[in-house]
Amino acid sequence: MTEAAIRRTPGTPCWVSLMVHGLAATEEFYGALFGWEFQPGPQQLGPYVRGLLDGKEIAGIGQLPPDRQLPIAWMTYLATDDADLTAESIRSCGGTVGVGPLDAAEAGRMAIAADPSGAVFGIWQAAAHIGTAVAGAHGTPIWNELITRETSTVGKFYEALFAYDVESVVSPDFDFLTLRLEGRPVASLHGVGRSLSRDLGSHWMTYFEVDDADAAAGLVTELGGRVITPPHESEYGRLATVADPEGAVFTIVRSATR
Predict the structure, then answer these.
(1) What's the pTM value of the predicted model, to 2 decimals?
(2) Is the distance from CB of 64 to CB of 71 less than 8 angstroms?
(3) Rounded Cα–Cα distance for residues 241 and 226 (Å)
């Protein structure tokens, strides 16, 4: 199956985007950190650009209106064949739809929703724009994980929404679900109990591939961001959790397979 076909499979994380107050400054930050270049994207919700690597689309960044004081956070989009039908399913399964469904010019059709735990995510029905077009390189999304208090209720929501095969590891000390489609792991849910950040609440975390986690964490600080969890080894590779200058939290990882 081609990368494009995988990205279109309903339930697959296919795109990530970020809404900020300072678009130009944010472009400078991610351009320096990940080597992205930028080009304009659909403007239905205001100024919006797409980050590119070698001319291929990686992620989106939009500008919030000056009077909108929304949390600054990376948002994961899940692919769908029918954004309107998926939006109806989100509501019937206990979630909410805050924006859309609406057309993003010729690119596709989208909506922004929240699951029953309050975590915000997008749905994307691809047309001209299939989503992230590069994988496995420095500055590309490598994984998406829902950080939440507990996985049992919200896991049933996502399972009903996209018919994932769910692999669970739940014990008194560990609460983790892997979501699979056609045998492929595509995302995970991690229940952290009382360790859940009050500031962030339940949220989707984007992991970006980097060539060197220590160097990238150092560069985040130099560029005006901050390191939340310093680089350390994990079973997935060497990783660190960081935030950009406007506070958007993400994880950088030098994957164990590189």
Answers:
(1) 0.94
(2) no
(3) 9
